[in-house]
Design goal:
This protein is an alpha+beta fold. The protein has one domain: Gcn5-related N-acetyltransferase (GNAT) (Aminopeptidase, 3-Layer(aba) Sandwich). Helix content is about 25%, strand content about 35%. A 4-stranded mixed beta sheet has the order 1-2-4-3. The longest helix is centred in the first third of the chain and has 14 residues, at about 20-35. The mean pLDDT is about 95. The chain binds coenzyme A. Coenzyme A binds near residues 21, 22 and 55.
């Protein structure tokens, strides 16, 4: 939480991938956050190559906003900061 913004991140143990678990969890968190009067923006980022994570965010109703270059390090992919896609849901679409 950062004032009116809430950001989320997630990781699921490999044996549980591909069962819709993270979509259900992220949907629940996004819906809860958007129901809080003080929160106006929920956002998340994922690695540009993480198609499953992007899909989770889309299915939770978040919109792709753009790419944050060299945004975060994902040591399992590279020791250097990776480009990430930013997804968000806002109460008042611009
Ligand atoms: C990414 C992650 C959270 C997804 O969780 P999950 O419970 O397996 O995801 P779900 O089963 O809810 O849904 C995944 C969606 O991505 C799709 N998907 C899965 N693997 C895919 C791939 N390699 N390419 C494209 N789409 C893919 C699925 O088909 C599904 O979409 P659909 O319902 O339209 O078919 C999980 O794999 C994970 O924890 N990975 C490691 C850590 C990580 O990447 N965290 C996210 C950091 S941003």
């Amino acid at each position: 939480m950062d004032g009116y913004r809430a950001d989320l991140g997630y990781v699921l143990a490999r044996p549980y991938w591909g069962q819709g678990i993270m979509t259900e969890a992220v949907r629940a968190v996004v819906d809860w956050a958007m129901g809080q009067p003080e929160i106006h923006r929920v956002w998340a980022v994922c690695d540009v190559d993480n198609k499953a994570s992007a899909r989770v965010l889309e299915k939770a109703g978040m919109e792709r906003e753009g790419i944050l270059r060299s945004w975060s390090i994902h040591p399992n992919v590279s020791p250097l900061p990776r480009d990430c896609v930013c997804y968000a849901k806002v109460k008042r679409p611009g």
